[in-house]
Amino acid sequence: MRRLKRQTVYTSFDWRSKYVVSSVKDQKECGSCYAFATTAVLESLYARKWGSNYLTNFSPQEIVDCSTSYGNYGCDGGNYRPCLNYLSARGNKITTLSSYPYVGYEKVCQTSSSSSAYLGSIQAWQVPTGDEKTMASALVNYGPLWVALYASSQQFMFYRSGVLSVSGCPNSVYYLDHAVVAVGFGYDSTYGMNYWIIKNSWSQYWGENGYIRIAKDRGNMCGVASE
Q1: Nearest alpha-carbon partner for 81 in 44, 124, 36
Q2: Does 169 qualify as catalytic in the annotation?
Q3: 99-149 pLDDT, tens per residue?
Q4: How deeply is 125 buried, as exposed, middle or buried, from its count of CB atoms within 10 A (0-12, 13-18, 19+)?
Q5: Residue 162: which residues within 8 A CB-CB, separation 6 or more?
Q6: Matching fold, domains 13-124 and 126-226
């Protein structure tokens, strides 16, 4: 896996303003955050490649059902690497959400080439652990990023608004327990903090319409730049 080099970036950026970020979804009681984060990133990359008119909802359910033999665990968690390995083995295709709806539990794998989008060559790049400047550069230059972080704090789980900054929040890769997508960053003068704009998969009724702003350049807050 290639590692990214740092480049000059903006002080603020938001892929939502480019119309290449799909709507917030709800993973329900299934531990499928990894599938939602993966499909969300692929949706944005697909729209960037073909144009915002081609922003398409892909199926997290396909990832949940079909990537277990590649190292994921259905509703018990997973990672983006097995997701990409599965999709590569399938010919870099993924089924649309409308053709393979999400149900919130693991089913038998079912795919249909007639309702699939061709993603083209899929490559994964990794930001050096904890390097938030390179992470910001990668986000601007490549698109929304798959991110793992520590989400078990009360402050995260019951977040409603503002910039999340949790004293002592674990940032080691061993504590990362939730996959999300970074879609931008900015500065909040009220809090006096830079922040990441993070798309979650706990429905649009959680946080700021399904999003959370997490402190940026504050020592890799909650592991946001660890993986």
Answers
A1: 124
A2: no
A3: 999 999 999 999 876 688 999 888 788 889 999 999 999 999 999 999 999
A4: exposed
A5: 188, 191, 213
A6: yes
> Which one of the listed residues 83, 178, 194, 220 is annotated catalytic?
178
Sketch the domain layout of the chain as residue ranges. 13-124, 126-226
Q: How many angstroms from the chain centroid is the CA of residue 80?
A: 9
pLDDT in tens, 152-161: 999 999 999 9
Give the residue ranges of the chain where pLDDT is below 50: none
Residue with tokens 């080099």: 5
Q: Is 53 a catalytic residue?
A: no
Q: Is 200 a catalytic residue?
A: yes
Buried b (16+ CB within 10 A) or exposed e, 79-90: bbbbbbbbbeeb
* Residue partners of 206: CB distance under 8 A and separation at least 6: 159, 200
Of the listed 33, 83, 169, 222, which one is catalytic? 33
3-state SS assignment for residue 198:
strand
C-alpha pair distances (Å), 73 with each of 24, 32, 50, 80, 166? 23, 9, 32, 12, 29
User: 13-124, what's its fold?
Assistant: Cathepsin B; Chain A (3.90.70)
Torsion sign over Cα 209, 215, 148, 52 = positive
Of 169, 200, 220, 222, the catalytic one is 200
Q: What is the pLDDT of residue 124?
A: 82
Contact 130, 220 (CB under 8 A): yes
